[in-house]
Write a structure and sequence with these properties.
InterPro entries: CAT-like_dom_sf (IPR023213). This protein has 289 residues and is α+β, with helices and mostly antiparallel strands. It has helices at residues 17-25, 43-57, 67-81, 129-146, 150-159, 164-177, 183-186, 257-272, 281-288, and strands at 9-11, 33-41, 87-90, 93-97, 100-107, 116-123, 195-199, 220-234, 237-251. The strands form 2 sheets. A 6-stranded mixed β-sheet has the order 2-9-8-7-5-6, covered by helices on one side. Strands 1-4-3 form a 3-stranded antiparallel β-sheet, with no helix packed on it. The model has no long low-confidence stretch (mean pLDDT 89).
Length: 289
């Protein structure tokens, strides 16, 4: 590689020998994929959203607070607490990503012919649930109004030129190979993100496992399924609780199993106790300890 560091990542050095060998043993993201599924109780999360909406009804606030935004806020805080999750492998080397960004698909309209638009949103680790909601709502509104994101607009230019797609992809791959791809390109590409999220629950579907993309450097793909109910017994008392299915595919080369296990537990706890999401990272560390 011409440069060790990249515009979107800093190369990790001083790894344990076995960890440093893993990208040589498993060269692709899908060869290195680990699949993790979990049912998460969202009763407290839905109650929290209901309280916010009730409080908002007494004011002139018009911000939209959704379960999707709450899940992404929990993911943001989990990455802030476990920054090793925000790493990626490029050409046998491990990098720490310099930013936190989530990508997801926005359907412009709910019909078969409406385009799907990629949205990529950048976050600060200290962003509150309100701030995350505002950023996501703005990205969704922009996608639905314009019918394309920055990446689609850029791709459309070369799509109209004969041979343009092959040309731009060839140049892009060369720049990427030598770690000199410009930030202006990587910033708009949704597959250069911390997590790619598919919210299939929004269209009433269950969550499947999804592959990782070899293009780009996204190491985690998360699929959110539809809400469903489960019957639970507490002694002689029967209750119905609401859950979502979450399916995560991740590149095991970025961190060890203990990190993944702890992060999954913290993520579930944050959704079960959504009041924690508005704490600072330092306060959150103390509350979870």
């Amino acid at each position: 590689m011409l440069f060790r560091d990249r515009c979107d990542g800093k190369r990790i050095t001083g790894q344990h020998a076995l960890n440093a060998l893993m990208p040589y043993m498993m060269r692709g993201r899908n060869e290195s994929a680990v699949y993790y599924g979990r049912e998460i109780n969202i009763e407290n999360a839905l109650a929290y959203l209901k309280l916010i909406k009730k409080a908002q009804a007494d004011t002139e606030a018009q911000e939209r607070f959704t379960l999707f935004s709450l899940i992404l806020t929990a993911a943001l805080k989990t990455i802030a607490l476990y920054p090793r999750l925000n790493r990626f492998v490029h050409r046998r080397a491990l990098y720490q990503r310099k930013h936190i960004a989530f990508s997801f698909i926005v359907k412009q309209r709910f019909d078969h012919d409406a385009p799907e638009v990629n949205a990529k949103v950048f976050f600060d680790p200290e962003d509150s649930f309100e701030t995350v909601s505002m950023k996501i709502n703005a990205a969704i509104l922009d996608a639905r109004e314009h019918g394309e994101g920055d990446g689609e607009r850029f791709a459309n230019i070369f799509h109209r030129i004969p041979g343009g797609k092959a040309l731009i992809m060839g140049v892009y791959r060369i720049l990427e190979y030598f770690n000199i791809a410009p930030w202006s390109l990587i910033r708009m590409d949704p597959l250069y993100s911390s997590i790619y999220i598919a919210n299939l629950g929004s269209i009433g579907l269950n969550a499947p496992f999804h592959h990782l993309y070899e293009w780009g450097n996204t190491s985690i793909f998360m699929v959110i399924g539809k809400i469903f109910s489960k019957e639970l017994w507490h002694g002689a008392t029967r209750t119905r609780q609401r859950y979502i299915d979450l399916r995560v595919t991740l590149d095991e080369r970025i961190a060890d199993g203990l990190i993944f296990a702890e992060a999954a537990s913290v993520f579930s706890r944050l959704l079960s106790s959504p009041d924690l999401l508005n704490l600072s990272i330092e306060e959150l560390k103390q509350a979870l300890s």
